[in-house]
Specification:
The protein is an all-beta fold. 1% of the residues lie in helices and 55% in strands. It has one helix at residues 259-262, and strands spanning 2-3, 7-13, 16-22, 25-30, 35-39, 45-50, 55-60, 66-70, 75-80, 83-89, 98-103, 109-113, 127-132, 138-145, 148-154, 159-164, 169-175, 181-189, 195-200, 206-210, 215-219, 225-230, 235-242, 248-254, 268-274. The longest helix is centred in the C-terminal third of the chain and has 4 residues, at 259-262. The chain is globular. The chain starts with a strand and ends in a 9-residue tail after the last strand.
Length: 283
Amino acid sequence: MSNLFLNVLADNFVFLEGPRWHNGELWFSDMWGHKVHRITPAGVVSDVIDVPGRPSGLGFMPDGTLLIASMADRCVYKNNQGNLEVHADLSATVNADINDIIIDKQGRTYVGNFGYDLLSGADPKEAELVLIEPTGEHRVVTSGLMFPNGMVLMDDERTLIVAETFSNQLTAFDCDTNGDLRNRRVFADMGELTPDGICLDIEGGIWVASFMTGDFVRVVDGGDITDRIKVDSKAAVACQIGGPDNRTLYCLTFAGEMADLSAGKRLARIETVTVDIQGAGSP
């Protein structure tokens, strides 16, 4: 197993989520900074749009339109020339903050949610994945997940993998032609690791950010870990492969406590390392 080390690309953010490589830049949410940004490989940061309801997961429709999961109001928005336009309002469908998203080649969007009020210390409850059609119509496609978080699509989008943070596992589903999910199974038992954001490489390996243990690991089907990056006192939040050669692993880290978020302390960073295997473009 290889052990890798990170270099800081950019800092001075509050809490980062949803990294996506698109059009030669990394796009990402500063959840508690209430903005979506993008950054060049050289580290130049640009503002994209303000999201008062706390942005999380990001994705791009087939026509290039940016979709943004807004956590507090449980809406997925389109970025319409710098304005937020409702794509789907999930507030009557789910009972907690929405979180990460992934979009397939048909423009269908899978959305996870916390399941309960984590930040207020509520008792844990299972959550659903919701599928939003390109028209904005939506439905629940699976339930009984313990804090569904990052997702990837693999096997030519025939398989969806979701990180269940507090079940300590990556869970796989078959995707049918309508986008419905079936044949739930464990892709990887992560042991003590708490998988948050994930991304896929071209050999079917999945890079996993383990929030509570401060690890980024690469895991393969069955659970074997092939690579590990320790960030020790920091939280490992999310990751994505991109860069000019598609071998830069962008890692989002956080060096604070939950109480620091509402205070707006800027303790989040984007850190990078070069990996051996190129990204598969998912999410």
